[in-house]
Amino acid sequence: MLHSALLNVMVKAARLAGRRLKRDFGEVEHLQVSLKGPANFVTAADRKAEEILREELAKARPGYGFIGEESGKHEGSDATHLWIVDPLDGTTNFLHGIPQFAISIALERDGVIVAGLVYNPATDDMYLAERGKGAFLNDTRLRVAGRKRLADSVVACGLPHIGRGDLELNRREMVVVQEKVAGLRRFGSAALDLAFISSGRFDGYWERGLSSWDMAAGILLVREAGGYVTDLQGKDAMLQTGDIIAGNETIHRDLLSVLRSAG
Q1: DSSP conformation class of 131
Q2: Rounded distance, CA 92 to CA 83, Å?
Q3: What confidence tens digit (pLDDT) does each residue in 202-234 have?
Q4: Within this chain, do residues 121 and 154 fall inside the same structural domain, yes or no?
Q5: Count of the separate structural domains present in the chain
Q6: Do residues 133 and 164 share a domain?
Q7: Interior CA angle at 188 toward 168 and 180, to 5°?
Q8: Which of 3, 99, 200, 212 could form a disulfide with 122 if both were Cys (CB 3.0 to 4.6 A apart)?
Q9: φ, ψ at 159 (rounded to 5°)
Q10: Same domain, 28 and 99
Q11: Domain span at residue 68?
């Protein structure tokens, strides 16, 4: 697959940061046996990855703004462009030596996401999308799954952890969805969950309480693979509300209806 100049910039940055994360991931296993554990080490790895991404993206597009999970928002001289970056989505997985984590990079132009990348350094899976040009996993064109019935579908979700989110609402939602689907999964990385929707691995996905960097790239991946993404009100305000639901047209509609019954 021939990448555009823009995607080449994103891929180069992701691979550089990914090499660092992969090396650090190899160290996590050795730190698991210590009493203190690897938490401080993983925090440092997260921050270093973001530094690499910010530096590399700024080299190629020096005027663009930048918002990252670790360093917050940095205004650029070009107010029309904004990088939205998560250097390590799936930190808890990384912390526990689980190879389900990703770098997520999106570019927003005049409020519209025009390019997205989700990269898992542990598996070397690189998901890419540009607005109007389709979505790809490495060199393979992606399409969302074609299943039409929730009863045949595997659906992914997020689970709020201690001190975050509405646990009671989440339990109600899980109950109503479990009664309708073939399988329910929680993998621990919103970026990869959306990438899995784009590649047809998951049929549906929903989560609450996310940040823009968790989902910006994944939103474009799903849409460029022919899928539907909205917030849990059925509107195009995911980055503002932090809530998201995705799937093909039918599964998105039916899953949204089921979730509303839990409210």
Answers
A1: T
A2: 24
A3: 999 999 999 999 999 999 999 999 999 999 999
A4: no
A5: 2
A6: no
A7: 55
A8: 99
A9: -125, 120
A10: yes
A11: 5-141
